[in-house]
Amino acid sequence: MAYVRTRAPRMSLVAGAVAHAAGVAATLVGIVFTSTAAFAVGTAVAGAGFGAAFSGSMRSLVPLAAPHERANLVSGFLVLSYAAFSIPAIAAGFFTSVYGLQATAIGYAAGVGAMALAALAAMRLQRANPITAQEQS
Questions:
Q1: pLDDT value at residue 134
Q2: pTM as predicted
Q3: Would you list the domain boundaries of the chain?
Q4: Would you list the DSSP string of the chain?
């Protein structure tokens, strides 16, 4: 994690999203081909990528708030983050009883991978067409 802390937040976001997507793809390979090694490595890479992206997002967001507003910002960010983690996990639990564990895991991983790629695309579009706060007003 020390490596991520020494990089610019945007670099952490991009590298984290790439690693997360790659790790999820490897995890999918492990699920589909019942490869414990691919599953374990993919999960580790996806987790490291998620951690890097989460760190980058926090380090990008916190400086935007005044010091006296940061506690509210971070608490709101964490509430939203935990909702984003828990709601899909609860849904996956439901779908496991309907479609089975393997099909649910494949669908869940495909959805997570697609979101990581969408985040990369959005960051690329933002970089190609930046809009400053002054231009939005």
A1: 44
A2: 0.81
A3: 2-136
A4: -HHHHTS-HHHHHHHHHHHHHHHHHHHHHHHHTT-HHHHHHHHHHHHHHHHHHHHHHHHHHGGGS-GGGHHHHHHHHHHHHHHHHHHHHHHHHHHHHHH-HHHHHHHHHHHHHHHHHHHHHHHHHHHHS---HHHH-
